[in-house]
Design brief:
Layout: E1 16-19, H1 45-55, E2 64-69, H2 79-93, E3 98-105, H3 112-120, E4 124-128, H4 133-139, H5 149-161, E5 167-172, H6 180-190, E6 194-199, H7 210-213, H8 217-234, E7 240-241, H9 242-252, E8 268-271, E9 276-279, E10 288-289, E11 293-294, E12 298-299, H10 305-314, H11 316-331, H12 335-338, H13 343-350, H14 359-375, H15 383-393
Helix pairs in contact: 1-2, 6-8, 8-14, 9-14, 9-15
This protein binds iron/sulfur cluster.
């Protein structure tokens, strides 16, 4: 690696490393897109040392970097593994690069050891819970068919007891989207203050989705958000709902320009336990496609930065992503708050990154429409909702 960023790549910046230390997951959600989730291989500390030694020298990484430990389930590896890993990364990053770690976890394996590690290293925690047991357990099951809600809730309680801030990501399904009040009551009773909704997506090996395929989806989702936002607005102490916050943030600005990390080359760098590297949408790691071939652009242990960057730059995928974003800019009224969507969704729904609307982005548009409808009812000083928005802007709440 010569450390030179060639012309045309000079402005490429890496803001996020998504690391898959193991593809294995201890549960087996029915909508999971990961084909390797039963594979127990893991990134050894020796391999990690070689990977981070090289990656942290990439010229696209400047003074800070976020690292998301997103497997499989990252907590199937022991807390002691991350203790060693975080110490190693801190040593390699030195004072030059500020590193912020995040776990995206199903919460079922959380223990006091994990809470101690999270507090010590100030790790951001995103917990995947799909609402109350009657919805969560429909899809988030162990391999023997048992639901994982009870274990996830134990994890949630442990985080609260340890005073660890966290946010919840909930996948809305055709079952839960019909019950906004039941969902809201659950979050309120569980003391969940930051929530993000994802819809069940067609991605990877999850080739069908009752939500995406259902004709009633738009209507149900609109009604869900309308009711959920209304309840959130009535709540005295703030509940941050990502979809609402992203709209408020776009309207009020807070000095933020809505960007699109997933369309920017090497902005998100995803690496698997063998050092294979992908970019754009993290969901592309480990996947391939009839048109694009493998979404891997090389191996960190074998290829230098310039080789990988050139492959990305010359790829059909990057050309199509740019063309798709240009079409979005020309055709879509929501471009200013979207930035051109997620390449993975365009590929898995439209079979090409050179495309625009997906059902996924239709859901995003509905979120914006409903927030705009309700925003006029926020009092002039915008009360607690603007405070919540400021929490988003200050990085104390989950990003869009
Ligand atoms: S909402 Fe959809 S169509 Fe509009 S800019 Fe985003 S990805 Fe493109």
């Amino acid at each position: 690696m010569n450390g030179e960023v060639e012309f045309g790549r000079r402005s490429w910046r890496t803001g996020l490393l998504v690391i898959q230390p193991t593809p294995f997951c201890n549960i087996n959600c029915s909508y999971c897109y990961l084909p390797q989730r039963s594979n127990k291989k893991r990134m050894s500390l020796e391999t990690a040392a070689r990977i981070f030694e090289r990656v942290l020298q990439y010229p696209s990484i400047e003074e800070s970097i976020g690292i998301v430990w997103h497997a499989g389930e990252p907590m199937v590896l022991p807390a002691s593994y991350y203790e060693e890993m975080f110490a190693l990364i801190a040593k390699l990053a030195g004072p030059r690069i500020e590193v912020g770690h995040s776990f995206q976890t199903n919460g079922t394996l959380l223990s006091q050891d994990w809470c101690d590690l999270i507090r010590k290293w100030r790790v951001n925690v995103g917990l995947s819970i799909d609402g109350p047991a009657e919805f969560h357990d429909l899809n988030r099951k162990y391999r023997n068919g048992a639901g994982s809600f009870a274990a996830a809730e134990r994890g949630l309680e442990l985080l609260k007891k340890s005073d660890i801030p966290f946010y919840v990501i909930s996948v809305l399904t055709i079952d839960s989207v019909r019950h906004p009040d039941r969902m809201f009551d659950y979050y309120e009773a569980a003391g969940i203050e930051n929530v993000c909704f994802n819809i069940e997506e067609k991605e990877g090996i999850n080739t069908s989705s009752a939500v995406v395929d259902g004709t009633q989806f738009a209507e149900l989702y609109r009604a869900f958000l309308r009711r959920f936002y209304e309840r959130a607005m009535q709540k005295k102490n703030s509940m941050v709902v990502r979809e609402f916050e992203s709209c408020l943030r776009a309207i009020h600005g807070f000095g933020h320009v809505i960007g699109n990390q997933q369309s920017a080359p090497l902005d998100i760098v995803s690496i698997d336990c063998d050092g294979n590297l992908s970019t754009f949408s993290p969901e592309l790691l480990g996947m391939d496609h009839p048109t694009y071939g493998s979404f891997s652009f090389g191996n960190v242990l074998e290829d230098d930065f310039d080789t990988i960057a050139k492959r990305v730059e010359d790829s059909r995928l990057y050309a199509d992503i740019r063309a798709g974003v240009r079409k979005c800019e020309d055709e879509c009224a929501y471009y200013g708050v979207c930035g051109g969507g997620a390449p993975a969704n365009k590929i898995y729904e439209n079979n090409s990154a050179d495309s625009t609307q997906t059902v996924y982005c239709r859901a995003h548009q509905i979120g914006i429409d409903v927030a705009l409808e309700l925003i006029e009812r926020i009092p002039p000083d915008a009360g607690h909702l603007l405070q919540a928005s400021r929490a988003v802007a200050d990085g104390r709440a989950p990003p869009i």
